[in-house]
Amino acid sequence: MNIGQAAKASGVSAKMIRYYEQTGLIPQADRKASGYRDYSDVDVHMLRFIRRARGLGFSVAKINELLGLWRDESRQSAEVKRLAQAHIDELERKIKGLQDIEHTLTMLVNACEGDHRPHCPILKHLENGEDNEDLSIHPRKGAVAGLAY
Q: Domain residues for 43?
């Protein structure tokens, strides 16, 4: 099948299929006499594997490792589990970082009066705030630690 048919069958765009070939994630497709790429059902199966792994957030490098394990019939499931657990650990770190950002933004939004006056703690923080600044709310209304306005 040609690249368009492989893309449709796998759910992976033709552009990404070319990228995966270029980076060595999948082998170069055979070529027809016309010069067009020719993909097999095995290639499509591999592309679906890659699409599912990308859907779970695995990097191309980690997908390459997973593909190697998938192809290795003497693999140990412990290695696959280790790789998946490391990915979960990284996701948890990213989630924690996003929660910290949300917390900071929520405090800044709560400290902003959002009225006709020009001063805004959000802009003040972006201008002068420390990257690791404690932004805990002070007891007085609208005050946020580290924000002078």
A: 1-73
Other beta carbons within 10 angstroms of residue 32's beta carbon come to 10
Please tell me the pTM assigned to this model: 0.74
> What angle in degrees, to the nearest 10, is found between the helix axes of 14-23 and 3-10?
100
The CA distance from 15 to 12, in Å, is 8
DSSP one-letter code for 25: S
pLDDT of residue 5: 97
pLDDT tens for 110-138 read 999 989 988 899 999 999 876 655 554 44
Please, which residues bridge with residue 137 across strands?
A: 144
Q: Are residues 45 and 81 in the same domain?
A: no
Kindly state whether residues 67 and 104 are assigned to the same domain. no
Task: Please count the structural domains in the chain.
Answer: 2
Which residues 6+ apart lie within 8 Å of 63 measured at CB?
25, 50, 53, 54
63 and 4 within one domain: yes
Please indicate, yes or no, whether residues 55 and 106 belong to a single structural domain of this protein: no
